[in-house]
Amino acid sequence: MTMGPGGDDARLSRTLAHAAGLALLDVRTGHAEGKELKDKGDARAQAVLSSLLDYHRPGDAVLSEEAADSAARLTAGRVWIIDPLDGTREFSERPRTDWAVHVAFWEAGELAEGAIALPARDVTYGTDDPPVVPARAEGPIRLAVSRSRPPAFVTQVAEELGAELVPMGSAGVKCASVWLGEADAYLHAGGQFEWDSAAPVAVARAAGLHTSRIDGSPLVYNRPDPKLPDLLVCRTEFADTILAAVARHTPAEVS
Predict the structure, then answer these.
(1) CATH number of 142-247
(2) Backbone angles phi, psi at 249, to 5 degrees
(3) Where are the domains of the chain?
(4) What residues form the annotated binding site?
(5) 65-95: per-residue pLDDT in tens?
């Protein structure tokens, strides 16, 4: 029996993310390496999500990193925004665990629900049961950044704030590090699209975290151009401080 619309969209997002995660773990047990492993992971997770959405929500539109875009989503009231494998590089580097599956649901202009699975850590976070952000220990602000290409302006912001940089893969993993208390903020500019942040932002909002563009403006999804190059996800008590520091170090790569 299919799940109905409305409140069950949150539960479905978790089910989808978990199912794609299991498929990715299966792919990872094979003999493929490097680009072949990345390509197999992308294709398998996309196939699982596409099949499940076709079955459970055949009338909804979909925006996926691994599928051709369709202008039909721009007039649709219900859109799923998915990244079948976020952190493809990390996925291909066994035994790394900092990769994810993103499933977000957008309705009538807003992110409504979402879930991200961290399959190699055997956990899925979703808006149906939002994570509880732990109390913060004393110490410098910790900024989650890309382990391979942290934006230069983040280093400048960190120096001004006396912050510590915490490198890791996957945008979803970086967002999760904030609601898990492993970092205080994820600050990014350049090179992202809606599917990179939609699901993590939905979960972060449900957990009570601050989410915005790096100029403080709202994150808007399901736009004609899916590029969404920058974001800030952080503990609410640091939002004003980080945004003020960012304003003094305007990153050239933001467009």
Answers:
(1) 3.40.190.80
(2) -135, 60
(3) 8-126, 142-247
(4) 65, 83, 85-86, 196
(5) 999 999 999 999 999 999 999 999 999 999 9
HEC string for 75-99:
HCCEEEEEEEEECHHHHCCCCCCCC
Ramachandran angles phi, psi of 107, nearest 5°: -145, 125
Q: What is the CA radius of gyration of the chain?
A: 17
The whole-angstrom separation of Cα 57 and Cα 73 is 14
- Left, alpha or beta for 6 (phi > 0: left; psi -120 to 50: alpha)? left
Which of these, 204, 196, 205, 202, lies nearest to 229 by C-alpha position?
196
- pTM, full prediction: 0.93
Would you state the structure tokens that stand for residue 138, as one six-digit string?
Answer: 């004393």
- Residues flagged as binding site for Mg(2+): 65, 83, 85-86, 196
For the 8-126 domain, the top CATH level (class) is alpha beta
Measured CA to CA, the distance from residue 71 to residue 145 in angstroms comes to 33
